[in-house]
């Protein structure tokens, strides 16, 4: 039997003078479904396409680890002022596809710092730990 682990969807919004890291979690029992969908279903790409059409380009970024599934994006095109709106769009779309709102955790801003400051995370697990502490 494989180990059930949670998933974290995160985005780093980068502006000229500041960076914000936002995230929400997906419950462990649904994380595998979401990760599999990103590999072979159309709906995650449809969400991404809609967000990029409405807001700007997102680039995939992730540092895989065994403790958590990570789905990460980075953008310098989407204004920081739209970060929460973009994350809520992702959140609501994933909850809708899973059919249950309570399997997706709340959207949180995890960090905000000047652009020249190095982030406090290296892996998807680091981001998940920041989220769990939020």
How do the strands line up in the largest sheet? 3-4-1-2-5
> Helix tally?
4
Number of domains: 1
Q: Structural class, please?
A: alpha+beta
**Portion in beta strands:** 15-25%
SSE order? EEHHEEHEH
How would you explain this protein's 3D organization?
The chain is an alpha+beta fold and 134 residues long. The chain has one domain (7-133). Helices cover 38% and strands 25% of the residues. The chain is built from four helices and five strands. It has helices spanning 28-40, 43-54, 83-98, 124-133; strands spanning 7-14, 18-26, 59-60, 69-75, 108-114. It has a five-stranded mixed sheet with strand order 3-4-1-2-5, with helices on both faces. A hairpin with a 3-residue loop joins strand 1 and strand 2.
Give the gist of this structure:
The chain has 134 residues and is α+β, with helices and mostly antiparallel strands. The chain contains four helices and five strands. Helix 2 (43-54) runs antiparallel to helix 3.
Note the topology.
Elements: E1 7-14, E2 18-26, H1 28-40, H2 43-54, E3 59-60, E4 69-75, H3 83-98, E5 108-114, H4 124-133
Parallel strand pairs: 1-4
Antiparallel strand pairs: 1-2, 2-5, 3-4
Helix pairs in contact: 2-3
Any key phrases for this structure?
134 residues, five-stranded mixed sheet, 5 strands
